[in-house]
Amino acid sequence: MSSPLRASEVDIVRGFALLGICIVNMPYLGQPLADLLVPSEALHDRAAQFVTSAFFEGKFFPLFSFLFGWGVAVQMERGGPDFLPRYLRRLAGLLLIGVAHAVLVFIGDILILYAALGLLLLPLRHWPAARLMTLAAALMTLGVVTLAVLAVGLSALTPPPTIGAGYLGGWGDAVRQRLEEWPLGFGFVLLFNGPLAMAAFCAGLAAAKTGFLQPGSAVFAAWHRRLPWLLGLGLPLNLLYAASVLGWLGEGLFAVAAFAGLAVAGPCLAAAYLILIVQAARAGRLGAGMGAAGRMSLTAYVAEGVLAGLIFNGHGLGLHGQLGPAGLFGIAVLVYLAVHVLCAAWLRFARQGPLEALLRAITGGRASAAPSASGPGRGGASAASPDH
Q1: What pLDDT was estimated at residue 82?
Q2: Would you give the DSSP letter of residue 217?
Q3: How far apart are CA 271 and CA 266, in angstroms?
Q4: Residue 373 and residue 379: Cα distance in Å, rounded?
Q5: CA 381, 134, 202: angle at the middle one, nearest 5?
Q6: Which of 90, 177, 201, 369 could cysteine-pair with 69, CB 3.0–4.6 Å?
Q7: C-alpha span between 255 and 243 (Å, rounded)
């Protein structure tokens, strides 16, 4: 295996992806489930929905999942004989954080799914890169099926009634509402994210084995040459997916096929984003400071939901259900910027975020309290990266 040393551009990729996460997840945090199933009437809201669906939704969780698989390879190389027990403890810690996140913050939590899929990745860790990529392609095919099932199911879905005052009530009311809605939320995550996340896990593990993220990598250069094909296939398929989400294609077989096409469209555009971001970072067009949130992506992911709760829930500003997609898009950008600033400030005094430190303590590692003289982003790889 080529040594998959941590590179600063990985943090920058995670930082950009956290913006995508925020934009995709904000409607689920700021609107009732019933409202999410009905396209908006206002032109500016429809434009925001279209942009989100075409360029963000389904494009950023493959990026994070890819880096999860890449991070597993880093842990394997550095863990030696202690890798297996440490990895299992890490997944257990991720599961505990995910359960708390789902109950206290966001029903669309993906960390629980990551913990489960991380177990499935374990027996594959010694597979050669070509075999892993073959499995990834098969899982994308499975993703077409699960997304088609989801498209049909969403048309017949009746969201559960609210419990008490729900998100506009007190803290306890919000927790009870999340407990009621979580099975529906996890079912959505399982169908929407599951096969493609596992495919990206495999691709990330394969990439580490081939030195994909190493400077001068021939594999990276080969994928860079495929960039026009990734964009040429990904862009029109993602536009069709967005059209299906907004109901412009009706409810027939073509609309279902366009929705299910995200299983190919999303990874294509995610791969293009990855190549372009890494290339820009290596060319010096993106400063290392842009990766502050990416260096503590687990904390940043949860923090985005916590800040959204202060905006939308009854224990905060109480704006739940008051904003349309355009307003939620703007709120998402502001929340991401706030989280990025908070992360940059935190990392002036510590090497890792608080949830990263907790996960490392559960894993059995030793947390560091001060920055390393070698600079940011050299303290190890995260295998706990989220996205919707």
Answers
A1: 85
A2: -
A3: 9
A4: 11
A5: 15
A6: 201
A7: 8
Q: What is the pLDDT of residue 386?
A: 56
Whether the Cβ atoms of residue 16 and residue 59 lie closer than 8 Å to each other: no
Q: What is the SS3 assignment for 320?
A: coil
Q: Are 219 and 234 in contact (CB under 8 A)?
A: no
Q: How many CB atoms neighbour CB 136 within 10 A? A: 23
The mean pLDDT values, 10 residues at a time, for the chain of 388 residues are 55 92 94 81 93 96 93 84 91 96 95 96 95 97 96 73 72 90 92 97 95 90 95 97 93 94 97 95 79 93 96 92 94 96 94 94 61 32 50
Alpha helices in the chain (DSSP H): 8-30, 33-36, 43-55, 61-79, 83-104, 111-121, 129-155, 171-210, 218-225, 227-245, 253-260, 262-282, 292-295, 297-312, 325-346, 354-363
- Helices 253-260/262-282 angle, 10° precision: 30
- Side-chain-side CA neighbours of 360 within 13 Å: the count stands at 20
Angle between helices 129-155 and 262-282 (to 10 degrees): 130
Instruction: Determine the angle formed by the axes of helices 8-30 and 61-79, rounding to 10 degrees.
Output: 140
Query: What does the block give as tokens for 242?
Result: 């967005």
Structure confidence at residue 288 (pLDDT) = 66
How much is the pTM? 0.89
Residue pLDDT, tens place only, 215-260 = 889 999 999 999 999 999 999 999 999 999 999 998 889 999 999 9
Q: Which residues contact 164 (CB under 8 A, 6 or more apart)?
A: 173, 176, 177
Provide the residue type at 327 as one letter.
G
> In the chain, what is the straight-line distance between the N-terminal and C-terminal CA atoms, in Å?
30
Cα separation, 35 vs 57, in Å, equals 17
